[in-house]
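If you are new to this repository, start here. Below is one unmodified record pulled from the training split, so you can see the exact layout before writing a loader.
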Amino acid sequence: MKTRPLASRIIGTLLFGATAAALAYFPLLGDQGTGSTDAGTGGIDPAQAVFTAEGQPLVEAVFVLDTTGSMGGMIQAAKDKIWSIATTLAMAEPAPQIRMGLVAYRDRGDDYVTRVTDLTADLDSVHAALFQLQAAGGGDGPESVNQALDEAVNRLSWSTGDDVYRVVFLVGDAPAHRDYQDDVDYPLTLAAAKQRGIRVNAVQCGDSPDTRAQWRQIAAMGSGAYLQVAQDGAAVAVATPYDEPLARLSADLDKTRLYYGSAAERAKKADALGTSKAALEAAPASVLARRATFSSTDAGKRALIGDNELVDAVASGRVALSEIDDEALPQPLQSLSADARSAVIADMAEQRARLQRQIEETAAARARYISERVAADGGAEASLERQLFDAVREQAGALGLDYRGAAPAY
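And here is the target side for that same chain:
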């Protein structure tokens, strides 16, 4: 039996189903009406979202992002750099699990007030939600910062426990509307955040004096840092000869994933994978290279796999393939003999290990290339990546996460 062609046929069948689901579902993310809406949690039940091993630290980061008309450059920077930020968060010792969330906000009278993506370890779903954001609306100065912060602190599925660095990054260029009578004013929200161990950092885009005064107050009340970046975020942009190879390796690695469970669970996962795939296919190679770099970290490997992934479950010995009911297996495996199923899983595990080694080596070469370029060009101290890294290093260090041997990921 030639296991590689069989595995390839199975992968192709599964991806066809995921792509079809994406075509049906993906456009819906772009128009979610007014008010506060959910962009999804990547198919992860918030009640089941935290699955860290005993003693393993957890980093939970939520970005509260102004998406009004003046924020186009920063929104693009967020799309481009989401994986670099995740990689930076993952660089601590001991290696943490990463969960991220997103609250996009505008103002009353715009297409929406908030769009919420719950905290999740499935960062592809966060990237897909970011991909749909465009700068529009606003125009009267202040925005619905109060509602956005309230939802970030009180609506999302923050975990409980001691081994958690919980952090919000408020990113915007205009102050809060404080004249909406039914709002929860941000001092009350920040007091609640402090009680729950959530730090709130305020990142000002541009140099508005009104925003500066309020953002400094928010940072002080939120036990966080005030950061100031250029209107477009001043993110470091270095194209490398390793971007295209990493993008290809990452796409090949994605094809080694197989999910088991009930028919409903597998359909839900196929929808999530299809939505993420549509966003990834539209992303440039540089973004895919950053995603591949994140997947080379311990946290990234776990995030890529997620729950109920058959190859990892069987190869690690956590699950015996013979103990899984036929109807819970991916459809293409159900008609195969036990030996053929085992051969497919073994082949995919071998492919995954080989691809992960290649990604780690190529990502390390890319990091060296960028480090040399950044050192030669200078100016990175004011970048979004550097300022976020400095804030995280100081704040997470107080909880036992050590970033002293790390550097910002670009």
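Two things worth knowing about this chain: The two ends are 44 Å apart (CA to CA). The chain has 14 helices and seven strands.
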